[in-house]
């Protein structure tokens, strides 16, 4: 008996669970057409509002006015099989929520027609507890239940966990996935979560989570349980209090074109569910004014984004975020959308009330991060870049250019100086010769 216990403990000590993620990215115009009830947009003649003063523009507009409908452009999904008959559902990996939910039959406002039929599962148990899940850009209502869940292949672990069976959803249009798999651990008083049930069933050894978001060529994945990799190159930062995957502002800085962007928001949080980034108004104004580089700021009513007119994305540079000593580059195409001579910034207005910057999955591409739950810290691994960072080098070239101009002017001035000096000396010699000749004549005549 003791031997069996020791073997079980040894297995649990190395237990973790890895699931593969599929990156799904939608064409922006098609996505917006779906959001616009199928009415096509005219990308060559977008409806825009010129903005002279962004503060005045915001006076008559509520919070969350920008970007709330662009959340689901990019999704990182995995397959879960639910119930005794293993009904397959596609769910988005969410590091901003803690519950798994899927739609029931005739769900109002749910994003897909694929639903979970509890009547076909002999292991389903309805807890008759109403539950609401609120996202930054939507909400879901349903009933909390209990059933078997299997992740990935048939040989994967099967375990019982809580599932919210959604009967109504709001503001989730555009989602391709059927539901969301929230993976963050629960706080005190929140009850159990997905990771709690993994531990209860001895599938993982801790509530630690590692996530890597690739760009399609690299395999994206989420790993539950202790990370066994070498962490020598990992940068560790303290996680926020209100957000599990959040980092306090004193450990984070933003920069663009070699200039630091002052940020006053207290926390920066990761969000794998959304494709865009939500920024409080005070910092959104600073970031936008930095990116527009003196161009006229426009608000695109049909797209819910701020932006400027531009010839191409080549007019911009990568955005740099530094987490303590860890540097992360956000590629131009990840934070700007180019549509027919217009460059749209993938940021939305999260209002004045929020004191957190939400970094969407487009801003985390190539990023691998580990959350150590017990120690309340997040580890950031070296970023896997698709290409060399597009960094502004204007300052170095400018100094070289100015130095060359200075040297050229100095050389020219020196040449002029020596030329005049030589000419002056030659003139003095000629004058002395003439004077000498005149004296000889006068002396000759005198005598």
Automatic annotation (TrEMBL):
<comment type="similarity">
    <text>Belongs to the peptidase A1 family.</text>
</comment>
<protein>
    <recommendedName>
        <fullName>Peptidase A1 domain-containing protein</fullName>
    </recommendedName>
</protein>
<keyword id="KW-0732">Signal</keyword>
<dbReference type="InterPro" id="IPR033121">
    <property type="entry name" value="PEPTIDASE_A1"/>
</dbReference>
<keyword id="KW-0064">Aspartyl protease</keyword>
<keyword id="KW-1133">Transmembrane helix</keyword>
<keyword id="KW-0472">Membrane</keyword>
<keyword id="KW-0812">Transmembrane</keyword>
<dbReference type="InterPro" id="IPR001461">
    <property type="entry name" value="Aspartic_peptidase_A1"/>
</dbReference>
<feature type="transmembrane region" description="Helical">
    <location>
        <begin position="398"/>
        <end position="419"/>
    </location>
</feature>
<dbReference type="GO" id="GO:0006508">
    <property type="term" value="P:proteolysis"/>
</dbReference>
<dbReference type="GO" id="GO:0004190">
    <property type="term" value="F:aspartic-type endopeptidase activity"/>
</dbReference>
<dbReference type="InterPro" id="IPR021109">
    <property type="entry name" value="Peptidase_aspartic_dom_sf"/>
</dbReference>
<keyword id="KW-0378">Hydrolase</keyword>
<keyword id="KW-0645">Protease</keyword>
<dbReference type="Pfam" id="PF00026">
    <property type="entry name" value="Asp"/>
</dbReference>
<feature type="domain" description="Peptidase A1">
    <location>
        <begin position="76"/>
        <end position="381"/>
    </location>
</feature>
<feature type="signal peptide">
    <location>
        <begin position="1"/>
        <end position="15"/>
    </location>
</feature>
<dbReference type="InterPro" id="IPR034164">
    <property type="entry name" value="Pepsin-like_dom"/>
</dbReference>
